[in-house]
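Weekly structure sync, notes
Attendees: PL, DS, HV (note-taker this week)

Item 1: FAD-binding domain-containing protein
DS walked through the input record. Source organism listed as Penicillium atrosanguineum. Sequence as pasted into the shared doc:
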Amino acid sequence: MVPEDARLRVVIVGAGLSGIATAISSALSGHSVTVIEQARQLAEVGAGLQITPNAARLLKYWELPASLWEAAAEPTKLTVHRYSGQILAHDSTFDKNIRAKYDAPFVDLHRGDLQLALFARAKDLGVTFHFGERIERIDFDSTVVHSVAGKTFSGDLIIAADGLWSQCREAFVGKKDEPIPTGDLAYRIVLTADQISDPDLKALVENPEVHFWIGPGAHAVGYSLRGGQMYNIVLLVPDNLPPGVSKQAGSVEEMQKLFVGWDPILNKFLTYVTNVDKWKLMHHGEMENWVNDTSNLVFIGDSCHPMLPYLAQGANSSLEDGAVLGLLLGHMTDKAQLPRILRLYESLRKSRGEAIVRETFKQRHDFHMEDGEEQKKRDELFLSQLGKEIKGHFPSRWTCPEVQPWLYGYDAIKEVEKAVAENPDLFSQPTPSRSFCQIL
Ligand SMILES: Cc1cc2nc3c(=O)[nH]c(=O)nc-3n(C[C@H](O)[C@H](O)[C@H](O)COP(=O)(O)OP(=O)(O)OC[C@H]3O[C@@H](n4cnc5c(N)ncnc54)[C@H](O)[C@@H]3O)c2cc1C
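Item 1 (cont.): predicted structure, written out as tokens:
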């Protein structure tokens, strides 16, 4: 808890997962937090989210309501199939292995459940929310954000948590800065267990596992939600949405045609789909800085490191951002430390966030190979490790011993403890002039 005179007024733009997580973490550190969100309310939008141990441990740390864990599904197995259905990789004790290695679970959640649980916790901690206010301008001299409706919100620090189409980012760079298409789009599908009559599929839904099917230019992922009462499928395919359109209702027929010849199990699932949306997958170039020169604006989440969802790290790394920022702010003893604390946040988070972005593109390369020599070599590597403990580089980073540990093993709380121990001067108190006056 920060002392009273180091207490900041924090204004967070955006009540997505990164915004609310940072609100919790900053409020736990003793700061006064206001969140401004353009939506009129938090709707149960979105579909499934894979929450990996690096973020699951934070949700535990923040003491989210028990109902969140009851709404989760913990996959017991993880399987990668070639698009034909042939098994390329299989971890038959995935849940146990993950808990043993990382001391935290890998769980699948409905995005709405997670967002509402975070929201409830933030409200408990006294965070103030303003819905239906779209921020269009920032006055950096006075640390004030202005909404389209003409309202103003002032503070000591503005946290940009406004996602892919960040207005804060444009205010920071001083020009239009729209996201760039990745060349892929996602079909997102959620089915309920009672919609599914096929006994084989029902068994898959009710017994949580993760399945990937990888093929030329595309892949699919399926996993259970809500303790096996729901099934989430994401289909990642080449983008054919018109330029400038980021989301559109899709045609079920067009979607099914893209997967003709793929595993019959996947196709059986697709016969249950009655409507579907297409989401253009976008990213951004790297920003030079995540903190402005006047140290009153800092970036988190998709506003500064949007990525392909191919490692399910967008939300997970956003929660890490929130944890690190809030915990560092909890070590403040004097407001004058803010510029250096923000720089420390940037040094801890920027290189990791950007490394994860690059890794998601590498995963696309390895999952979307056209049939041919490169794909044959990849599959030989996959199959050489089937049924064994995986060693060395592995084409699925989900179980790769070189990538999984740095993704899932990251502990934001320990990272902050280490950074604080390594920077004793930054957090020392009081300022020399004040103590000198007191002595006099
Ligand atoms: C198909 C797909 C599957 C995914 N699966 C996973 C997964 O399994 N695991 C995972 O970790 N991640 C996943 N992700 C990524 C994840 O959803 C995002 O990375 C994450 O939600 C980003 O959170 P955020 O809070 O930074 O941004 P957002 O969720 O975009 O939130 C931004 C918020 O700011 C508000 N806002 C925007 N502009 C303004 C403004 N001017 N004024 C006020 N409010 C504003 C918005 O309304 C919104 O509420 C997936 C993404 C996709 C597309």
